[in-house]
Each structure stands twice: as C-alpha cells, then as structure tokens.
Amino acid sequence: MLNNLKSTTTLHNGVEMPWLGLGVFKVEDGDEVVSSVKAALEAGYKSIDTAAIYGNEVGVGKAIAESNVPREELFITTKLWNSNQGYEATLAAFDESMEKLGLDYLDLYLIHWPLPSHGKYVETWKALEKLYKDGRVRAIGVSNFKIHHLEDVLENCEIKPMVNQVEYHPRFNQSELHEFCKKHEIQLEAWSPLMQGGLLDEPTLVEIANKYKKSTAQVIIRWDLQTGVVTIPKSTKPHRIAENADVFDFELTSEDMDKINALNQNQRMFADPDEFNKA
C-alpha cells in the first residue's frame, strides 16, 4: 500500500525497498549534500540514492552518521562507475565506495551503465553476485539497462537483477522495458522523474495538478508510484524535499493516469545506453 514514506515494494529476494527516495545527482559533496540528506531524513525519507561518479558518497555517509535514524531503517544505494567494470575492479570499487560512505553493508548496488563497447557488464555482474552472496549488499541491480542488456545478464547469471534504474518520466515511459522487468520480477526505478524540471509547466500536468491542489512535481511522482515504479526525485531545498514526499494523501484517477500516459513521446533527455561509452 502507498500510505506514507515508509511504504515499500518487495524485491524478488524479499528485501523491502522504499517506493520514494532522495536522489543526489549533481549535489555537491560537503555541506550541500549533507544538508540535503539530513533534510530528507528529517522529512521521513528512508531511501538515499548516490553513485561513485557523483563524488558525494563521503557527504552522504556523513549525513547518515550524524542523523538519529537507525541504520537498519535506511535503504542506501550507490552505483559502480564505468571505468571500474570487470570482476576484480568492481570488488575494489565497492570497497572504496563503502569506505567513503562509512557503512558496514549496502542496501542496493547497481551497475551504473551497461557500457556495451567494453563488453564487461556480464563479468561485472558476477562480481555483484559475489558481493551479494558474501552478505555485503542486501540487493543488487543495474541502471540504464535496455531489454537486450538484461537478456544477456539473465542468460548468464545465478542471481537475476532485483532493480533496473532508468530514465523514466511522462515523456519517456519505457512501457516495453517496464513490461519486460515486471515479467522477470525486476523492479523498475525512475531517475530524473521530473525531467530535470522540464515538465513542470506542461499544460496537461498543470491542469491535473490544479484539480488535486498539488504541484505538477507531486502529480508526476504520484504517477510514478501508481505505475509501480520506484522514484528518487532530486532536490537540495528542504521545503521542496518535503513537498516531493507529500504525495500519499491523494490518488490519480484512471482517466488522469491515461492523460499522463498519453504524454509519452519516447523522448530521452540523456544518452542512449547503447551509445554511452564514457569511462
């Protein structure tokens, strides 16, 4: 049930993952990320999503350490960067991330991009399986994987991915990928759910927001949740962080859901995972 910030989805291994979390992409390490994470935790958030390439794992860890929230109540995600793909390099990169975060275990570890030109993501997945079997991470998954990347992993894995975090918003709802993930019990998660603010003035969304006396951001986040997609909107402003979480006191009608679904244009804001090869 989507009742509050503690509401969770159950991953295929039984681990409970919050439906809503804070993403910290492009949030500066130091005071900015520390204050953002603290504001989220004070607002009741339980899930924080970072990545090695964001350069702010130290600040995320500091905020967690200085908060009064018990570690076992939190769900912390970080991601392996492209330059560290490969079995041994992945294990070393995980250790480095854990040292920066100052954590004894991680809740979710993701391969950040498939990086098909390097051809290492299946080998990299084997390293994630080891980390999972060793009890160092509670769940493992991927990010920005298309169907054919997932098929490669599924054909070669002992443990299938629990999460696939992808670009997902009303202009790019990835319906085919979503159906594939549901079929294989892989939880879809949205990054950049607000299209970096690019949808906040979209007339259909403004009209729906006015109907519910909510912001367009809140409507998009609620749409994510009602489509069964975990979402991690980013903000550094405490009032916006709290506002983004105020989405559990209303429910979009099927008609409104259809209107939002109709906004899809298969429009990516960011790189195609088959073409993104930055290491």
Helix content: 25-40%
Poorly predicted residue ranges: none
Mean pLDDT: 97
Order of helices and strands: EEEHEHEHEHEHEHEHHEHH
Mass-distribution shape? globular
Q: Structurally, how many domains make up the residues? A: 1
| Largest sheet geometry | 8 strands, parallel
Record field, number of beta strands: 10
Binned strand content: 15-25%
CATH names the topology as TIM Barrel
Based on secondary structure, the structural category is alpha/beta
Terminal CA distance reads 40 Å
CATH class category name: Alpha Beta
Strand order of the largest sheet: 3-4-5-6-7-8-9-10
Rg, nearest Å: 18 Å
CATH superfamily: NADP-dependent oxidoreductase domain
What is the helix tally? 10
Q: Under the CATH scheme, which architecture would be assigned?
A: Alpha-Beta Barrel
Q: How is this fold's topology laid out?
A:
Layout: E1 8-10, E2 16-18, E3 22-23, H1 31-42, E4 47-49, H2 57-66, E5 75-80, H3 87-101, E6 106-111, H4 121-133, E7 137-143, H5 147-156, E8 163-167, H6 175-183, E9 187-191, H7 203-212, H8 216-226, E10 230-231, H9 238-244, H10 254-261
Parallel strand pairs: 3-4, 4-5, 5-6, 6-7, 7-8, 8-9, 9-10
Antiparallel strand pairs: 1-2
Helix pairs in contact: 1-2, 2-3, 3-4, 7-8
Structural commentary:
Pfam families: Aldo_ket_red. InterPro entries: AKR, AKR5G, Aldo/ket_reductase_CS, NAD(P)_OxRdtase_dom_sf, NADP_OxRdtase_dom. Residues 21-264 form the NADP-dependent oxidoreductase domain. The chain is of the alpha/beta class and 279 residues long. It has one domain (8-261): NADP-dependent oxidoreductase domain (TIM Barrel), CATH 3.20.20.100. It is built from ten helices and ten strands. It has helices at residues 31-42, 57-66, 87-101, 121-133, 147-156, 175-183, 203-212, 216-226, 238-244, 254-261, and strands spanning 8-10, 16-18, 22-23, 47-49, 75-80, 106-111, 137-143, 163-167, 187-191, 230-231. It has an eight-stranded parallel β-sheet with strand order 3-4-5-6-7-8-9-10. Strands 1-2 form a two-stranded antiparallel ribbon. Helix 6 (175-183) links the parallel strand 8 and strand 9 (187-191). Helix 2 (57-66) packs across helix 3 (87-101), helix 3 (87-101) crosses helix 4 (121-133) and helix 7 packs across helix 8 (216-226). The model has no long low-confidence stretch (mean pLDDT 97).
